[in-house]
Amino acid sequence: MTDVPFADYAEKFETIRMRREDGILEMTLHTDGGPLRWSRKPHRELEQAFLDVGRDRENHVIILTGTGDEFSGPAPSVEDNLKTHNQSTEEWGELGWESKHLLFNMLAIDAPMIAAINGPALRHAELPVMCDIVLATETVAFQDSAHFVGGLVPGDGMHVVFPLLMGYNRGRYFLLTGQKIGAEEAKDVGLVNEIVPADQLLPRAWEHARNIMKMPELNRRYTRLLITEVLRRQMNELLPYGLALEGLALVK
User: How is residue 127 annotated by DSSP?
Assistant: First the structure.
């Protein structure tokens, strides 16, 4: 039984286009039809979208992708970033709650997830690499532009995801230096599984999705739960702590 019908949320979000075919849901991030410009709106909408997607049992495989030549951006200036995050305790309490559930709701989706990264992911780069299969074009780059080098503590999941996926030393270097990692290096360090030409990115994602769909439903769902358990446990343990420290360095 479907808890949240697709029609209830398919066109609800201004920064996420959705289409579903044969149980495969494609989520395309955008801002006014172009590459996603990160702000509070997509942050808020993705938290709700992941919740809705996870509660709709007709979603069997998820493809997460972007629009145009970027997945997410832009890299902010330190001044603008600190100004945006200059918040009261109450304001940070709300944003921290949203930040926690953004990642918890994504990890609660029990359908396999495929990232089709169409270009640089300079904001919230943890989201695509948290998917189970990660495809990238040659133009892809990853950077944590908004946290340590942007004046903030990287406590909203970056501190969990990148050291876990890249290795502890590489992950700490990545966060502390604002390192920008291109597609080939990202594949070498384990962030990306395949690098494909831009015009083959979504067809390759759909090919993987259709292959996954050949498996029995409970095999798909239980495998997703099993292979994300380590990440889920680390998030449960370290995400609230990271958000608390990030907030302590910000609130006035």
Answer: H
Contact, 85 vs 34, CB < 8 A?
Answer: no
| pLDDT value of residue 203 | 98
Alpha-carbon span 214 to 203, nearest angstrom: 17
Q: Which ranges of the chain have pLDDT less than 70?
A: 1-2, 252
The per-residue pLDDT for 1 is 47
Structure-derived torsion over alpha carbons of residues 4, 115, 33, 75, reported in degrees to the nearest 10: 120
Q: What are residue 70's DSSP bridge partners?
A: 67
Sign (positive or negative) of CA dihedral 127, 147, 91, 104: positive
126 is catalytic: yes
pLDDT at 132: 98
**Which pLDDT does position 252 carry in this prediction?**
64
Least Cα distance to 96 among 216, 252, 241 occurs for 241
Active-site choice (47, 70, 126, 246): 126
